Amino acid sequence: MRIVIAEDDLLLREGLALLLRAEEQDVVATTSNPADFLVAVDEYEPDVAIVDVRMPPTHTDEGIVAAVEARRRRPGLAVLVLSAYVEQAFATDLLATGGARLGYLLKERVGRVAEFMDALERVASGGTAIDPEVVAQLLARNRPDNRLSRLTPREHEVLALMAEGLGNTAISERLFVTEGAVSKHIRSIFAKLDLAPDDRADRRVTAVLHYLEGRRV
């Protein structure tokens, strides 16, 4: 997998590159600002971009803006966004675009190599990866969607893991249940959230959006 990194912190940028190369990934460029990042995307045509949310010059949302522009220039580019702390709106906004090939992780997750690589591979293969801490903080919010109150405790657990971007197999392993049981819970979640089969919408993403939106301030 060809990877471009956009991170203004030198130590983290070089540490990421070393980690990924040790995992036999092809880091084709490392950049410290949005302009150089976009040049690298044009030049190297990566499969995945790892992008810091806050970059020069204002350290607000330059990374997000650059990631959106990179995906415009290179449709299908997988983007894994890194942030120093939870910025919940970004997680919801990522999913609102459809969620495909997008991830949002806290920087501390990089040190947990197996988890970080799992998230990176999920994003690269077309999935979604949302940091568990983001999900946990959203879960603590007290403005639930009324439809969410219909779910059983186990269905809430399944939906929370779906919000992290886990597939049925990973959910079954995390909860120590069969994949068949997970599929049954997901069908029940769709029914209780009034999500009928519809080719125009991804019910899995829509269910997660209900979950996240129901817990935003």
UniProtKB/TrEMBL annotation:
The keyword DNA damage does not apply. Keywords: DNA-binding, Phosphoprotein, Transcription, Transcription regulation. GO terms for biological process: phosphorelay signal transduction system; regulation of DNA-templated transcription. InterPro entries: CheY-like_superfamily, NreC/VraR/RcsB-like_REC, Sig_transdc_resp-reg_C-effctor, Sig_transdc_resp-reg_receiver, Tscrpt_reg_LuxR_C, WalR-like. The modification 4-aspartylphosphate is found at residue 52. Residues 2-122 form the Response regulatory domain. GO terms for molecular function: DNA binding. Residues 144-215 form the HTH luxR-type domain. It holds the Pfam family GerE. This is LuxR family two component transcriptional regulator.
